[in-house]
Amino acid sequence: MPWGVPAIAAAKVAVLLGLIRFGFHRDELYFITASKHLSPSYVDFQPVIPLLVRGERALFGDSLLGLRLIPALAGAAAVFLAALIARELGGSRRAEIFAAFTATIVPLLLGMGTTLNTVCLETPAWMLVVYIVARLLRTGNKRLWVALGFAISFGLLVKFTELAYLAGLAVAVFASPLRKDFRTVWPWLGGVVIAAALAPSIAWQASHHWAVVEFVRHQGTGGRVLGLGGRAGFLASLAILPGPIALWVWVPGFRQLWRDATFRLLAVTHGIAFLVFLAASGKGYYAAPGIAVLLAAGARALDAKPKKVLSIALAFNVLPLAALGPALPLSVLRSSKDLAQATEMSERIGWEDMALTVKRVYDALPPDDRRRTVVLGSNYTIPSVIDFYAKRFGLPPAGSGHNSAYLWKPNAAADHVAIMVGFDEAQVRRLYRDATRVATIRNRQGVHGYDWGDLVFVARRPKLSWDAEWRALKVFTA
Predict the structure, then answer these.
(1) Is residue 478 part of a domain?
(2) Contact 287/277 with Cβ under 8 angstroms?
């Protein structure tokens, strides 16, 4: 491997760790809470990230820098895998370096490493699968099916989103000469590895009424890109999220795979996966693992062409990410709600203020009420915030019926008092006979974040038993 590849990977890690600004992303607080409730599976993700966070917290405590090591190292892994894929596809050392460069500089692949999220691990996990498949196609070494089983297992234990890519891979394999390998024992051994690795997760899902299926069914119409939602939004995201300049790399990469009979299987795989996401109105970042692979293929496709101008254009392509993200002044975020939320910078601001607001409400309650108080949030962010700051501020137990937070039901007395955050008054009064609005969630920076403007109620005299109320709060949706 050219020395430039590890140098690029190291530079990417340094950049990502230098982009720590504002504080924890709301999803990071969610994963910290999940790390305290280890399980074979969850509603909206799989056990790998909570396990990694549990280990990271054992080493570094609740350090933001320690937590961000996980996405930074995952980003470095994507750089190495991009170079390895380019080499397996027949690329030169120059193609390896260019593949590593694109895996670093393309905004989608750089931006996802700035916070701990599922896609930062999904991407190298899928790239590892593709690297093994490419090597299998090139060498014909059937023992690689076992390695493929381990790689697929890892990806599925990060998040079930990889199933869309695996569906494409399955169709492509059985439409290609590679299906003959199933006359040997090796693919079946790989299948045994997958079955053994996924058995606890599948058993958990079966015993929890297939929670992930309910979650996927209620995902809605995906995210919005340039005001476009649904399928149009997904198609727009293929150009916008990687940056338009990246089209000059990953589109030739797809073409290269399709024209090469040896590796056409990989073109079919990604074409089917993208069609699945399009049909399901998936969020644009679901395509990140596939885009990363196609960028590596693009490095091979452009191997014989001078790439100096394209490299410079790709480097400038990342400037909007810097301007609209980590380098964006607070004054700009404060003046534009849409910009603050589009860049997700707002999702890293104001959590301590939320906890302090709840503390003021809690401290104002009579002593008898405080002994039986529970905080209830309309989404998973709220109990994650309260849990994170609970020891520092002396906060009561908290919970939410949203996604995996539903699994972590706090204890509550039959005559409990609830501090309700993020609900409207009608929702509160459906559950409680008495309700008083006492506060509104704001933050000192004045940035309109995810929970800006949420109402806070103190609710007494529950209409339902605690078990029935908890079931009424349940909502599995993105």
Answers:
(1) no
(2) yes
CB 265 within 8 A of CB 172: yes
Does residue 332 lie within any of the structural domains?
no
pLDDT, mean of each 10-residue run, the chain (478 residues): 91 87 91 98 97 97 95 97 97 94 91 91 97 96 97 97 95 93 96 98 97 84 60 84 89 95 96 92 88 96 82 78 60 63 77 97 96 97 97 97 97 96 96 97 87 95 97 93
The pair phi, psi for residue 414, each rounded to 5°, is -60, -35
Contact assessment for residue 422 and residue 380, using Cβ atoms and an 8 Å cutoff: no
**Does 272 map to a domain?**
yes
Cα–Cα distance for residue pair 169/156, rounded to 1 Å: 14
Contact 282, 234 (CB under 8 A): yes
Tell which residue, 78, 94, 187, has the closest CA to residue 131: 78
- State the pairing for strand pair 398-400/417-421: unpaired
Q: Which amino acid is at 321?
A: L
- What the block records as the tokens of 62 is 């609740």
| 298 lies in the same domain as 355 | no
CA distance 127 to 122: 9
Q: What is the 3-state secondary structure (H, E, C) of 167-221?
A: HHHHHHHHCCHHHHHHHCCHHHHHHHHHHHHHHHHHHHHHHCCCHHHHHHHCCCC
Residue 336 lies in a domain: no
Distance CA 24, CA 68 (A): 9
| DSSP 8-state class, residue 454 | -
Domain carrying residue 396: 349-473
Same domain, 357 and 320: no
Residue spans of beta strands (DSSP E) within 324-381:
373-377
Report d(CA 15, CA 9) in Å as an integer.
10
> CB of 86 within 8 A of CB of 296?
yes
Examine the domain organization and report whether 354 and 235 are in the same domain: no
